[in-house]
């Protein structure tokens, strides 16, 4: 009992094409030929999505969303965010209307509250220091270009020292 080469090629192509055309949750399909029946399991999975893990691309989108939330706070002109584990480091620049240290502290706290309220799973740390803003921006740019977060471990440790969490 042999299969003609043309049937073997068609069967192989069918086996390759059917999984891509299936619907999620569909029952296994049967393909019948003259000589035998083959069961094909049809799955609709996206290999770009990593279930149960933070995808680097998704993490960068979330960091961008946090920056957009921070910029919406009054008197914030720019914001940049890097997420490392459960901590979101937010660098901000304030508008020219903010002059006193008290006003700056109030803006930082408002940013922290807004970002924390929108995405509460992160501990939010905010700084308006231009050097810290630049460092967060540089780390974020590096991560977007594919550099692993572990290459920035020294910088992240420095951010932890310069941007301590809220003490209760």
Give an overview of the whole structure.
- It is a single chain.
- This protein is an alpha+beta fold.
- The protein has two domains: 5-40, no CATH class; 56-162, Alpha-Beta Plaits (2-Layer Sandwich).
- The chain contains five helices and five strands; from the N terminus they run H-E-E-H-E-E-H-E-H-H.
- It has helices spanning 5-21, 56-71, 101-118, 130-144, 153-162, and strands at 29-32, 37-40, 76-84, 87-94, 123-127.
- The longest helix is centred in the middle third of the chain and has 18 residues, at 101-118.
- It starts with a helix and ends in a 6-residue tail after the last helix.
- Residues 22-54 have low confidence and may be disordered.
